[in-house]
Design a protein that fits this description.
- The protein has about 80 residues and is α+β, with helices and mostly antiparallel strands.
- The chain has one domain.
- The chain has 2 helices and 2 strands; from the N terminus they run E-E-H-H.
- The chain has helices spanning about 40-55, 75; strands at about 5-10, 15.
- It has a two-stranded antiparallel ribbon with strand order 1-2.
- Strand 1 (about 5-10) and strand 2 (about 15) form a beta hairpin.
- The relative contact order is 0.09.
Length: about 80
């Protein structure tokens, strides 16, 4: 079983950020990765990379140009 838990170190022990469902008195193997700058692991890093690529497209895509009045409530229906 693999579980990812966000936690912080208070100087003596690791404190989970949310409740955890782990077996009591069972040995655990921990892998510690520092979560810095708002990232919490490979999933967030991949999302950040995708966001950066999307920002690269800004201004390079062309599409139909609609006047602002086309979005007025009476024109939508």
């Amino acid at each position: 079983m693999t579980t990812t838990i966000l936690a912080h170190f208070d100087g003596q022990v690791l404190v989970p950020e949310q409740p955890v469902d782990l077996p009591v008195n069972e040995p655990l193997r921990l892998q510690i990765d520092l979560a810095r700058h708002g990232t919490h692991g490979p999933v967030d890093q991949a999302a950040a990379e995708r966001l950066q690529r999307m920002r690269g497209f800004k201004g390079s895509l062309n599409g139909p140009s609609l006047p602002a009045e086309a979005f007025a409530r009476e024109n939508i229906y």
